[in-house]
Design goal:
Layout: H1 3-18, H2 22-36, H3 40-56, H4 68-80, H5 86-99, H6 108-115, H7 119-125, H8 127-132, H9 145-150
Helix pairs in contact: 1-2, 1-3, 4-6, 5-7
Length: 173
């Protein structure tokens, strides 16, 4: 039985379950467990959860404390500070805010929130911009055994005591 079919079946028996007496509830619960393949306790939890959703709706989660304006200013400060770590940023933000008052997105509310932000919250807010600005694929070398066999490495010059001799490889660092 698919998850969608189980949800539809749950919606069908929900009203009948809550409007019946104790013995009928036990029979309906047994039937629900057999049809859906659930344990009795899990089925009871599902019925209660579905009833609460029916009565109270889906409860919203906590509202974010730092809105988009704070996040935009924080990203702008992070870039101006040359992408420093969050612990250093917390110490530097009050000093930077003295000189960033001319920004059009800086309000007193944003300023107050930036002054009380923690390093962990800064890391959470900057997680997405850090991922977007991450540099990938900067290496110019490719792996393979072809280069290993074609580049000769001379081992007979390994013990040189006088200056003026040098040996290097062409790997890009």
């Amino acid at each position: 039985m698919s998850q969608q079919a189980k949800r539809e079946y749950l919606a069908q028996i929900l009203e009948r379950y809550w409007n019946s007496n104790k013995t009928d509830k036990g029979l309906i619960l047994d039937e629900f467990c057999k049809v859906c393949g659930l344990s009795r306790k899990h089925a009871i939890r599902k019925l209660r959860r579905a009833r609460n959703r029916q009565l109270y709706g889906v409860r919203p989660g906590p509202r974010p404390k730092y809105d988009q304006a704070v996040q935009d200013v924080l990203v702008r400060l992070w870039l101006a500070m040359r992408k420093c770590c969050s612990k250093k940023m917390v110490v530097a933000i009050p000093k930077w805010l003295e000189y960033s008052s001319s920004w059009e997105i800086m309000t007193d509310e944003v300023r107050a929130k930036l002054l009380e932000i923690s390093p962990a919250t800064i890391d959470r807010v900057l997680r997405q911009p850090k991922r977007q600005m991450q540099i990938r694929g900067i290496s110019t070398t490719k792996q393979g055994s072809f280069r290993k066999t074609k580049i000769p490495i001379r081992m007979h010059f390994w013990d040189i005591n006088e200056p003026g001799h040098m040996q290097s490889d062409t790997v890009a660092h």
